[in-house]
Design goal:
By secondary structure, the protein is of the alpha+beta class. The chain contains 6 helices and 5 strands; from the N terminus they run E-H-E-H-H-E-E-H-H-H-E. The longest helix is centred in the C-terminal third of the chain and has 19 residues.
Amino acid sequence: MARDIVFFLAPDDETAAVTHPTGPGRVSESVTCRFIEPDSAIAEWDMYFSEPSADLPAPELLHAWWPEWVYGPFNDGVEVFALPQRLIRALADAGPTELAELADRWAARLRATEGDDMTDDDLPEVLRGLARLAASALDTGGGLYSWSF
């Protein structure tokens, strides 16, 4: 589980990858959260929009939807992931009801898997912030990434 996660905009994978050592720094648009697994979260969100289901995703299904690393994990524990373009479009197009439903589903999975160690972040607010970042990514032609430690 990552202690610190920053979702941020970058023009391309190479630019996102160079954030590895210290994170994206003070970027004008970002969303931060703590104590989640960004790879599982990204996979879950992508599944939610691409293959809706009433059931919570099983861990092995999440692994099949793993996001692409732009900087893989090494001994320092830092990872940088690219959110898939289809997820960026889906987040940008999602309305308030859809984001609230996704937040409820995400919270249910986190409670089931993390229990008392679940993040205390406001998950609906995290998703609303990501939807705004996704819209910006589409407007600028860049990408949306997560940096975590």
